[in-house]
Write a structure and sequence with these properties.
This protein is of the alpha/beta class. It has nine helices and 14 strands.
C-alpha cells in the first residue's frame, strides 16, 4: 500500500471523479442494481430473439421443431391407446356406443377428449350413466349403466320403451316384442310413469284382465280392462281409489257384471255405467220400447 505522500508527489488526486462518484451512488440503490443485473440482460436477449426470429423462415423452422418434438413424445408407446372395452351395456347398446364414439384407435392419449366422448355417449337414450378412463396397457375403459325398460308408452311418435323414471330408452316396433311389459297411452303419460307403475302393481289381483292405462287430459288415469271395461280414477288419490274398487270387486265380483265404466273420480259419489246390452235388457224388463229393437 502506497503512502499518501506518493500520490502528492505524482500529482494524482485520490478522490473519485465526478462520474465515478455518481456511478457508485447509483450502484448503492437496489433498484438500479436489479435493472443492470436482470432487466438489461433480459432486454438484450429479447432484442436478439426478435431480430433472429423476425424472419418467417426461422419462425416456421421453430414451429416445425416444436411440433416434431411434441409428436415424438405423444406417440411414445406408453401414451398410445390401442383398444376400447365397454362393460355394462347390452350387445345392441355396445354397437351404438362404438358408432357414436368420436375416436379412431390407435390414438395418442393426448388427443382424446374424455369429457367430450362422455357427453357423446350420455346423449344416447339408453345410457343412464357412463364413466370413461384410460387404464394401463393402452386400454380405453368405458363403464356404462344402462337404462332398464319398465313400461311401454304409446305416444305421438308410436311405441316407446321408458324406464321407471319415464326417461326414453328406445323405440319399439311392435307391442308383442315386449309383451312382458305393461303399456300406457295418452298425452303426458310419459311424465307420470312412476304413478302408473304403482297402479299396475296395485292391480295385481286382476292382472289377467288389465290391458293398460290411459292418461286423460294429462291429469288422471283410466285403468282399461278387457270386455271394454274402464275404471276411471281421480286426479288425486288414484291408488287409494283403485284399492277400494278392487276390494269391492273381491267382495261382490263387481267387475264380472255387465258394467262398462266404474267412475270413482268423485270418491263421495262413485258411479257405475252399464253396458249397452245391459241397458237394453233393463229397459225391456221395465216395458220400455227400445227404438229399433224389433228391426232385424
Amino acid at each position: 500500500m502506497r503512502p499518501l505522500k506518493f500520490f502528492k508527489r505524482e500529482g494524482h488526486d485520490p478522490a473519485p471523479s465526478k462520474w465515478a462518484y455518481r456511478w457508485e451512488r447509483l450502484w448503492l440503490r437496489p433498484g438500479f442494481r436489479k435493472l443492470v443485473r436482470v432487466f438489461a440482460p433480459m432486454g438484450l436477449a429479447c432484442a436478439l430473439g426478435i431480430a433472429y426470429f423476425g424472419q418467417p423462415e426461422r419462425q416456421q423452422a421453430m414451429v416445425d421443431w416444436v411440433m416434431e418434438a411434441r409428436a415424438s413424445i405423444e406417440t411414445r408407446p406408453e401414451f398410445m391407446v390401442n383398444l376400447m372395452a365397454i362393460d355394462g351395456a347390452s350387445e345392441l347398446l355396445d354397437s351404438h356406443i362404438r358408432e357414436v364414439m368420436p375416436v379412431d384407435l390407435p390414438a395418442s392419449s393426448f388427443d382424446l377428449d374424455l369429457e367430450a366422448m362422455q357427453a357423446q355417449v350420455e346423449s344416447l337414450d339408453a345410457v343412464k350413466k357412463v364413466d370413461l378412463r384410460i387404464v394401463a396397457g393402452g386400454l380405453l375403459q368405458v363403464n356404462v349403466e344402462e337404462r332398464i325398460p319398465a313400461i311401454i308408452w304409446r305416444g305421438p311418435d308410436g311405441l316407446e320403451l321408458l324406464d321407471a323414471g319415464g326417461h326414453r330408452v328406445a323405440s319399439l316396433a311392435r307391442r308383442m316384442d315386449r309383451a312382458d311389459l305393461p303399456i300406457i297411452a295418452g298425452e303426458g303419460g310419459n311424465v307420470a310413469v312412476p304413478e302408473s307403475l304403482q297402479l299396475i302393481e296395485a292391480a295385481e289381483p286382476i292382472k289377467d284382465r288389465v290391458i293398460g292405462l290411459v292418461r286423460v287430459s294429462e291429469l288422471r288415469w283410466d285403468l282399461v280392462l278387457d270386455r271394454d271395461q274402464r275404471i276411471m280414477l281421480p286426479q288425486n288419490g288414484a291408488l287409494d281409489a283403485l284399492d277400494r274398487v278392487l276390494a269391492l270387486n273381491e267382495a261382490k265380483e263387481l267387475l264380472k257384471r255387465d258394467i262398462a265404466r266404474v267412475d270413482i273420480r268423485n270418491a263421495q259419489r262413485p258411479t257405475l255405467r252399464l253396458t249397452t246390452s245391459a241397458l237394453e235388457d233393463m229397459r225391456l224388463l221395465k216395458g220400455i220400447e227400445i227404438k229399433g229393437s224389433t228391426e232385424e
